[in-house]
Fold these 2 entries.
Entry 1:
Amino acid sequence: MLVDLRSDTVTKPSVGMLKAISSAKLGDDVFEEDPTIIKLEAMVAEMLGKESSLFFPSGTMANQVAIKTLSSPPGELICDKNSHVYLYESGGIAFNSGLSVKLLDGELGKVTAESVSAAINEDHVYLPESQIVSIENTHNRGGGSIYSMEELDSIVGVLKDTGIRFHLDGARLFNAVTESDYSASEFSRPFDTVSVCLSKGLGAPVGSVLAGSAANIRKARKLRKVMGGGMRQVGILGAACIYALENNIEKLKDDHIRAKHIAEAILNCSMIKSTLPVETNIIVAELKEGLKPDDILSKLRENNILSFAFGKNAIRMVTHLDLTDEMADHVSKVVRNL
Ligand SMILES: *Cc1c(COP(=O)(O)O)cnc(C)c1O
């Protein structure tokens, strides 16, 4: 038994999902004739309370196209220093959109209205025009932290009447929804564009969706094409994503419960100093002084557990759909005894 906690992207399509894929109705999606993709895009637009949505092969492409859709260089994007759009998209903000980035020092990855307000440039010939604020909910490097609606509303208050656009990297938005009183559409309301991943906790093999106004999504469709992301009978992936939305959202709760159990156990591990608060399915555990991630990763590997180094003195574990209670118990037992 191998327990892979490196990411919630490691899941394989279930039997039910494979059946949905094999019976998908298909057409040419560059001609906008794939009925399964049309259905998926309508479904996600509805769930996120937006006019329109567009399927993407990755969350990175969805975010990058969103940023390009909402900006016109020269200009600047404002985000937390640990944002996926900045840290893990290979410099795409500069490469694709010609923007500079102003980084904020968020708390568990979350930025405040005050810090956003202070980061907005005044209209001056020297200064890049502030064009986009991008946030992440849940926040990956923040340990799966969730924004409250009050926090989002106060950022919206700062952006009101500035013309600055607001993008949500909602790769794990449904994890946030699962642990809060708000629906996906309520959480999406403040934003011009919202990206969601179906290939993370929801278990599809491939796929992200970007939602927004009809005009922005029309523009995004062209930008997706210019990046080589126009796909043909892509309903085979769309069918997996529809299956994921219909069957797997409610299972995120189990991922969160298992993450809490593992986190409790890991606090008893002699190599671990502390963890970030575990709000959803991500456990970020800081090592005791003098230890390196490899010291614990190699011990975990000896026990058939895969995890990830997270910087120089922490590891990350992510729970997901393919993790059973038996596997989670194995992890808890092993870490308690390290
Ligand atoms: C995974 C992830 C993405 C998108 O990643 P892809 O691998 O390109 O699909 C974007 N944002 C966050 C926060 C993520 O965790």
Note: The mean pLDDT is 97.
Entry 2:
Amino acid sequence: MDFLEEIGARRYLNAEDTFTKNGASRMSPAVYQAMQEASAWWVDLYEVQRETGRAIARMTRNEGAYITSGAACGLTLCAAAALCGEDWDAWHALPDASRLAKNEAVLLTPQLTPYACSVAASGARIVQAGAPGEYVSARVLEQAVTEKTAVIFYFLYHGACLSLPLEEALQVAKAKGVPLVVDAAAQLPPAENLWKYTRMGADLVVFSGGKALAGPQDSGLVFGSQKWIERFIRFGAPEAGVCRGCKATRESMAGLYAALKEFLAEDEEARQKQLMEKCLLGRRTMERCGFRNIRLDPLGPVGQASPRVYGEPPTATAAALRESLREAGLLVGLEGEGIWFHPQMLTLQQTQEACRILAEQAGRPAQA
Ligand SMILES: *Cc1c(COP(=O)(O)O)cnc(C)c1O
């Protein structure tokens, strides 16, 4: 009897997305092994954080890297570090930032998502740049930045059509002398995004470790200059304070490091070919089952290079099919009249099994 049987929880194949609620990523044996090795001994956690960060920074062509327990708490950490500067007392007063001269974080109105709460959790007052439904230009962003602004956050993808491009936002930030943080949590693949935004001039860039990187689900990365990384090491977990809850264990540091090594070792073309192969299996299954408006999208739900397949089921409604797939142990996405099949995290064998379930539930037997 394995763990899931023992506690009485169901198991699924995840062809929906790297959603935390689904368990998100799937770690490889090499990742488990690194975690096990890190677990066997006690360490100086500060040293492991610093050295793992150094190694990851070298691998990803960044000046510095810091491991958090996820992208969301990476946002909190960046905001808190921007608020307090080098001030120890200011750090320990957070989330009370009322006495700080610079206690505001500027976010672009079209980019607002519930992740803004992770910025606010630092104690920063959120200031919105732009009116709802209107384009945020460089001028609008400039006007939102005042002498009270500690940091600007820029969320990639969400609200992009109503937001000035990142290049322009960076120009505004530089001109105003305010650091800019990029939330790139789910912007992988391609691997080059790991260094793209820091190269463009972003002060800090946040990624999830538990999505495409297939590291521990409770891991994340912040890239930035050594000055910022040292501040994170000084103020972040295990130090008490507003980010104590963001602690990363030595096991998750080891796991994320191993996952990154694997992710970077894979040639981007080979990665795309493999992802596409799994999508083609899904598409063929949909075709055989008589799905309508089948479409292979080369991009994932937040514009990352992660292909997926859309199709409208021939008999049942999409919502009903999705429910019966779930009952049968397969998670897929839902949009309008159709389902999304996104096998990013599945092995080839799991994808074949997912296709078998799909064919079965869509009412046609699978064929070899
Ligand atoms: C997933 C996601 C996060 C949160 O990432 P975690 O690693 O799960 O904390 C933050 N921002 C965006 C844009 C995301 O997609």
Note: DSSP finds 14 helices and twelve strands in the chain.
